[in-house]
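sorry to bug you again but im stuck and you know this stuff better than me. theres a chain ive been looking at and ive put its sequence and its fold in token form underneath. id like you to explain what the token line says about the fold, in plain words if possible. anything you notice is useful, everything is just below.
___
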Amino acid sequence: MGCSTKVKLTVFGVLGIVLIAIGGILIDVFDQVIHSEVNEQIPLKPGSETFKKWVNPPADVFLQFWLFDVQNAYEIVHYGAKPIVVEKGPYSYREYKVKTNVTFSEDNATASYYETRTLVFDRNMSVGDENDTFVSLNCPMMGFATLVRFEYDIIKDILEAAFEVLGEHLFVKLTVKDLIWGYEEPLLKFVNDAAKSRNISLGLDDHFGLFYGQNGSNDGLYTIYTGTKDITQAYTIQTWNGNESLPYWETIWCNAINGTDGSLYHPFIKKSETLRLFATDVCRSLYADYEGDRTVKGIDVYRFVPPAKMFGDIKTNPDNIGFCTPNITECLGSGVLNMSACKDGAQIVMSSPHFYQGDPDYVNAIEGMHPEKDVHQTFLDVEPISGVLLSAAKRLQINIAVMPIPLISSTAKFKNLTFFPILWLNESALINDATAKDFKSQILEPIKILDAVKYGLITIGAFILFCTIVFTIKYWVQRSRTRGGELQINRGDYDVLRDGENEQQDGE
């Protein structure tokens, strides 16, 4: 009986150890299988499922605008009052992105393409119609005034006279559609007609709009690495418009084209990584650091957000000195970026909405600025195994630099440089339900099954080994007690015999 118990305990003990060992081995084996399968699926290859989804992304993308309605235009111009604005929005557009003219290199190591963007107004997701009106800064007028600020006084006098003749005012009433997509601007038409009468071509359009001519257009030629040669470089931009760097800024670091376009990354993202992306709308590369874990439609993701230092001043981030334009003596405070170098001299200043993470002076200069992290922060939600972006929001604000310019009466009451907010936008993307379901069934569920197998074996093995140890201890405790009892009985018998012998000796 004892021998049989020992054999059983030995067998179960060995079985537990074997199962734990197999589970441990399978951790490495299955991880290699997962890496191999993902590395096979993620690279961009002509005709593959990945290619089809890359060309026509299966995500719901919206571009939403919030416009700032100026409440005290008269007081600003005549008394130098602090600007008061009220936010109106969102005005929402469904965005459709399609990659066109896709060509692969001979070895499929790179792919080149254009991405066409089409926007369609969505009234159901908007607070009003595109024909809603509001009061905004007269951007073309301010642009011309800024352009001549260093010219001779006679030039300024001529421009001031033109403003009066054309009835130009520093603040104008526009529709949402006008400001975003463009309208015929009398001042631009006047300047163009005057130049043409002297056979001079200025290359100006008679229309002005912050996104004039961009609906149905593309933002240039991209060439990216497909990941077939090096999976860690998948979707990273090699060149934009044939260039490996930008021509706008003052340093190599600031002109670098880094990362992807922000929609896809290499697989097996780590929390310690910094994700980089190139954004043509701000003419620079951006970056984001891990903030925390999130869940998007039942899928676990890592959230990455831009650190405050990305738009920090040169004291906070010395690398940003290259963004000081027109030279390194013209540096702005934290939270803003002078875009004039890449916007043909236009005094456009980009920031996060409501100057979020910006210098408090910029926030306090405009009444109506209320920066909030949850509403105004840009973020990327990336599924770490595949590197696929499941949810994202790019949030930017367009401001115009306004300053007092001698002999231009409309600007006379401005005391100093002010970044006047025009609108802020949120370009958001969210994976649709069908694609999320496919993603879970094709990638996540097989991984969960493999995890269940390997960790299940370890758990079962550990349980068997634990039970074996418990029963072994119990067996030896019981055996020890049995032996102790037998020894006690034997001693008792010996004492009886010894007492008998003593009595017999006494009788004699």
User: Anything to note?
Assistant: The chain is about 35% helix and 25% strand.
